[in-house]
Amino acid sequence: DDPEKLTTFQARIDSGEKIEPKDWMPEGYRKTLIRQIGQHAHSEIVGQLPEGNWITRAPTLERKAILLAKVQDEAGHGLYLYGAAETLGVSRDELTEMLLDGRMKYSSIFNYPTLTWADMGAVGLLVDGAAIMNQVPLQRTSYGPYSRAMIRICKEESFHQRQGYHIMMKMAQGTTAQKKMAQDALNRFWYPSLMMFGPSDKDSVHSAQSMAWKIKMNTNDELRQKFVDQTVPQAEFLGLTVPDKTLRWNEDKGGYDFAEPDWSEFFDVIKGNGPCNTERLAARNKAWDDGAWVRDGLMAHAAKKRAAKLA
Ligand code: ACO
Fold first, then answer.
1. Shortest-distance Cα residue to atom 13 of ligand 1
2. Distance from C-alpha of 228 to C-alpha of 221, rounded to nearest angstrom
3. Is the Cα dihedral 174, 72, 94, 88 positive or negative?
């Protein structure tokens, strides 16, 4: 890259200007955005699976309608994000193919199973809570289309988090068996949720450059700390216990001290060896294969229309 162009580009970023699709950008900036936005889009799409699993078994019609709306929102988030990635010169089909053959990642969290109805509560409270913590700052990210997509996504995510909290509240105030279910869901989702923010800062390969480019606004550990500080009082209010015996309020730092997740488990999950990786990718591959006739039909229709226009 031309050093002069790089300096001007960095100055634009530093002054808080947005970078738009037709502007000059370093190849590394474009690649990093495609990786991060693409991974984010895939996470929204794969993220429909663990909750989709409970739509037919929601306990009331109201809960079913809410869950259905939420899962549809995730599909919409995936679409805005694929749209944002496409402005960088990659097609949605290319991104999908990279997901399906394992060249691109999606969030580790969606490789864990949802075993009971209380998991819908824990997913809303913890997984959507972590997603908001990560995504609110991304509304100010330097790439225009990504930041604008984030604004709408964040509005919907906060509804998702609240619906999760409401499920947890009902369960926690319910029968002994229901409360036990809520506690069990919290126990299973706590550490995987902490892993959503990525490896600890010392192991985060992309953070320094991504923060200089304002593709990321905070380090992984900063956001993880904020998430713990926000979530512990919420769990306490519900009468539930965060499964971390080392958890202590630290007056000096104005935040909690907490136990790190098991990082070997995290790296294993992102390598493809989590409890549901195979199942999740098989479901996405099946959806892609089952949809081939729709794509073929659309292409044939477009070709016919083009031919008619030329004639
Ligand atoms: N799940 C899967 N992979 C992860 C995760 C995770 N939770 N965290 C980090 N990684 C991967 C990174 O993609 C990177 O691998 P790669 O080079 O093959 O892409 C590697 O671990 C090292 O991590 P970092 O250097 O810290 O990576 P990065 O700077 O991209 O930070 C983060 C990771 C924080 C997830 C960042 O990409 C981000 O903020 N993304 C946008 C938000 C997002 O994707 N959310 C998805 C889940 S929320 C939801 O959709 C409901």
1. 105
2. 11
3. negative
User: Are the beta carbons of 201 and 207 closer than 8 angstroms?
Assistant: yes
The answer, yes or no, to whether any atom of ligand 1 lies below 6 A from the CB of 196, is: yes
Give the largest Cα separation in the chain, rounded: 77
CA dihedral 199, 204, 206, 211 (to 10 degrees): 90
ipTM: 0.98
Residue with tokens 């001290």: 257
Q: pLDDT of the chain along its 311 residues, tens only?
A: 789 999 999 999 999 999 999 999 999 999 999 999 999 999 999 999 999 999 999 999 999 999 999 999 999 999 999 999 999 999 999 999 999 999 999 999 999 999 999 999 999 999 999 999 999 999 999 999 999 999 999 999 999 999 999 999 999 999 999 999 999 999 999 999 999 999 999 999 999 999 999 999 999 999 999 999 999 999 999 999 999 999 999 999 999 999 999 999 999 999 999 999 999 999 999 999 999 999 999 999 999 999 999 87
Number of H helices, E strands in the chain: 14, 2
Using the mean position of ligand 1's atoms as its centre, give its distance from the Cα of residue 163 in Å: 25
Least Cα distance to 188 among 263, 274, 113 occurs for 113
Cα–Cα dist 25/28, whole Å? 8
* Cα 36 to middle of ligand 1, angstroms: 7
User: Among the atoms of ligand 1, which is closest to the Cα of residue 107?
Assistant: 1
